Each structure stands twice: as structure tokens, then as C-alpha cells.
């Protein structure tokens, strides 16, 4: 969509019409960055993603335009790197799942369906949880699969944030100075994907890594192709109808 309304004025194509306003270049860049980097739960993942993609477009294609912003940037939100690579489809990682030994020496732990049902009750809505096993049995880790869409991304981020707020997120797990108890969890990213462990091995088999802007661009291309195909179908039907009407 066109963001330029005049030589010096711009608009945000992703904001509702009732909230549209004219921006100078850097004001629009500031707006798009602020929404894209927002940590507010009121902001949906799709809204953040579209605005991050707009930042990319502004910086790549319109960065020669230089205006002074009228307002300071909002520093209250935690910055989100638009180049950050997430595992795609969205996957959560759970570690420190309690395990026990059976009389024959096998390691057992909570089933995937039990964890899945618990996460569904908490509103995270995964469609599958896969415990990871090796030759000894249950490894105490699991992969949580979310729906391959933007609501699925919202659920994945809510899942991650819930554990982070309880100090059971990834950073807390990696701290080696304290005894760990309870589950720790986070959303899988590029470093997890590349890790030389059972988690990395499984992620590389079942997924890829992509940035949010890359996913938005792919979605836009699919939509453009869908519109183009629909246009061709309509034109063929019109041609067929006109041909029939001749007789």
C-alpha cells in the first residue's frame, strides 16, 4: 500500500482509517518502530509484524528523506529486533520436566498430551506437545507446537511471557548459579535451532528460521498471487459467458 500522500507527508497503511493521520517521514518511522517494538499485550502479533515490516520498507526504500521528529521516541517498551529469527512454524521449548527411572532403567516423564491439555487450559492453545526421547528414555524436554498463523504467534509469545514473569524463562534457565526446580520455557529462536543438542536436532528436522518481516513479505506474495489467480478465473468465466451469449 502507498504510504506517501504528498512530497513531504506520509500515512500508516496498517492503522484503521479513523486513526489515520499525516506524518513527516521520521514521525512515521518513529510510529512504526514504536508499534512494532511494543511489549503491550494490547498489541496483536500481526499488528506488530506489519509495523516492523513498514520500518524495513521506510529504512530501505525511503531513508534518503530526512525530517526532524516532533516527539521523542517512547522508551518504555522493550525493543524488539526486526532481524530476530524465530523458528517457523512457531515452537515453544520446555525444559526441566520431572523424570523418574523405571525398574528396567528407562527414564519416564510427563506425556505430551498431559502438557498440551494443561497449556490449553491456560489459554496458550498449542495443537501438539512432543516430549523428546533418546536411548535412555524421556530427556525432560519437550517441543510445543503452535498454529502456523498470527494467532498462533500471539499464543506462543503469551506462553513465553508467562514463564518469563515467573522467572522461569530462557535467561533464568541459562543462569548456572542456582538450583533449578519446576518447568522453564520460551519460544524457539535461531540459537536454539542451531544448538548442538537434542532440541536443535529436532528443530532442524521439523522447522526453519525466519524473521517477522520475511514472513510478512511471504504472506503478501501469497495474497498477491491469490488475487491474481482469482482475477484470471473471473476473466475466463466472463469470456466463457460472452462466448455462450453469442449463440
UniProtKB/TrEMBL annotation:
GO terms for biological process: gene silencing by siRNA-directed DNA methylation. Residues 12-55 form the Zinc finger-XS domain. It comes from the Eukaryota. Keywords: Coiled coil, RNA-mediated gene silencing. Pfam families: XS, zf-XS. Coiled coil: none annotated. InterPro entries: FDM1-5/IDN2, XS_domain, XS_domain_sf, Znf-XS_domain. Residues 83-194 form the XS domain. This is Myosin-11-like. It comes from Trifolium medium. The lineage of its organism: Eukaryota, Viridiplantae, Streptophyta, Embryophyta, Tracheophyta.
